[in-house]
Amino acid sequence: MKRILFSLFLFLASIVVFADGGFTVADVFTDHMVLQRNANVKIWGEAADGSQVEVLFEGHSRKSKAVDGKWMVTLRTGEAGGPYKLEVINGNNKVSFRDVFVGDVWLAGGQSNMEFALRRVKDAKAEIDLADYPQIRYYKVPRKYYPEHEVPETSWKTCTPETAPEFAAVAYYFAKNLHKDLNIPIGIIQLPVGGTTVEAWTSRKLLLSDKDFRPIIERYDSIADAYQSGEYEKIYDRYIKSLAEYNKLSAEKKQYIGKPTEPMGKWNFRRPVGLSETMLNVVSPYTLKGFIFYQGESNTARGAQYRKLFPAMIKEWRASWGQGDIPFLFVQLPRFETKTRYWNELREAQYLTSLHVKNTGMAVAFDQGNPKDIHPIVKDTVGWRLAQIALSKVYGKKIVYQGPEFRKKTKTGDGSLLLEFANAGTGIIAKDGSSSLSGFMVAGKDGQFYPAEAVIVDNNRVRVKSNQVNDPVDVRYLWVNSGYMNFFNKEGFPALPFRTDKYRLETEGVCVNPEPMIPQLDLFLFIGQSNMAGRGYITDNYKGSIKDVYLLTLNGDMEPARNPLNKYSTIRKQIDLQGVGPAYSFAKAIADKTKHKLGLVVNARGGSSINSWLKGAKDDYYGEALSRIRQAMKYGTLKAIIWHQGEADSRNPEAYMAKLQKLVADLREDLGDTKLPVIVGEIAEWRVNGTSDAFNKMLRTVPRHIPYSYCVSSQELVPLINENDPHFSADSQIILGRRYAEAAYKACYFKE
């Protein structure tokens, strides 16, 4: 049995295991937990004022008395081992924890690339099938967005093929490599939340302490002051997850809505200090070996500020745990193509942190990024690199743990610069076997940088030269958002991006994220298979952008929507078959009729079965759709889900309904709206395999089996090529999209 306790500023905020008389043990203590070895481990909870609490562990007893209803016992652990039993006694109450191991505990924090689950990585099934590690455990801190937010029970999980899919992938590979080298139990506390800024993990006191941070909290306060009632605050939290009631309240309180600079209500998870109060303090001060951290994407507009803010966060976290300068290892941002942010400046801020903050380490990940996807699906190398840093800097192993790092430059007199690098290992190489290194630029005294040829001179030196610069004085390496990288040492570690100049940063003086240029949008999620992706030919009639309609891009921005609308799907087939789908005419019809501005998230894949769309499926189309619509929610409110799928499942209509019910129920639960409208469409009525009649008949019953759902007809639509083709023609897609729009108007706007 559990209950929720909240204290805004104290570490004792948590869900707790409790017995009679108000005696509790903080929720982070459960069966299968890992306690830090050779350490003074803190155990805490609540009890009646003045009552005695005793902790028994491996023949040792420690006692403490509750003060102001809170108790804490410090227990000394020994060498790694287990399984053990830990007991906590308060009068007649006793709580026992079994299968407890002693080893090393690391806390994994950050945003979506740390949160990225193992089930979503490349070749996930092969890894998960082998993920049987009884001495690797993880604890996933429940997402708690506001004080009264009820969260599900959670517990420590032993790493098995059954539990591994939800293990944060980078943390999993980190733990796996540590366990392999150290042969001790490894515990991971998972804390990341996608989309969060670094200030979400800091305290209000910290943000008010510095003139460069103060604008963050001041802008937030100016927004939050408009959200006066507790009811509105909770409604606005649901807004982050999709918020069905938001429109009703916004109509009543228009003076408070306006055009928010960011959708940060008083309890928004991205708000400054928010998750520090409601999640970080749940597990502080659980005794740790150290931290691993992967964050920065949401701060790339403020790289200059990050130079101070990130070290300040590290200092505050360490103070909260009271373990001195415990190790803090982090990932430098990978490459990613974007025109609107300054990832290079954020990377430099991270590098400077690794130089100037004691007992930190940075894993370079530039080469591990996907230029087109902010969430690269390969995570094993990043986890391995973090582990190598830990093995060297924390555990004292004599190994190479990072790549070439710039040390000095020397003019040679022939118009080139000679660069010297530390951490070259047994020698620097062009990993692709080429004769030169990519990514270098040089500039003369005028500060104009030009591409440079870079040639390896010996094991730790590189000569750079450009025909466009006669007298180079400065050099930059990978001072870009994205680019090609082939500069490594022979041990396989990439060179660190750097610059030798001190020119003003583009982000200097920027203290808050720029105001989004997109108005608040009505959002629609389009998922399914090839007819949703669109196979209709894009003629002149269907080119050009749609007025007042925007499309979510791969980097989370919104751009004017134009065909093909499935081009940014993270699961689409890599073929040039993206064409006109129903989303095009749907959006035009809704925008014209309502005069609202729309945001589209189109994430379909041709040939996909409903089995691939179910939550927890190997392909994880579900997780991709959820991630994409959550990205979009900073721009508006999710109005409905449009689902067109079934051609791959038409032979078995009897089993389809139960799967569709589960899919819809899971989406509504994860998006926080049990009444979210879902609109499905019939497949082609001609007999491709002689199966469409029975399947469409079943689809027409969906509104009877799934509340708040609708079905649109495919009658009188025609095929793209012939009746052996399950795809609708472009003109038929236009008709189908309008039918979807009619249903959506009734579901979402009819009462306006």
UniProtKB/TrEMBL annotation:
Superkingdom field: Bacteria
GO process terms (BP): carbohydrate metabolic process
InterPro entries to which the protein is assigned, alphabetical: SASA, SGNH_hydro_sf, SIAE
Keyword terms: Hydrolase, Signal
Keyword set includes Transmembrane helix: no
Classification via Pfam families: SASA (PF03629)
UniProt-recorded Gene Ontology molecular function terms: sialate O-acetylesterase activity
Residues of the signal peptide: 1-19
Domain Sialate O-acetylesterase residue range list: 103-221, 284-375, 521-745
PANTHER family, per database record: SIALATE O-ACETYLESTERASE
Protein's name according to its UniProt entry: Sialate O-acetylesterase
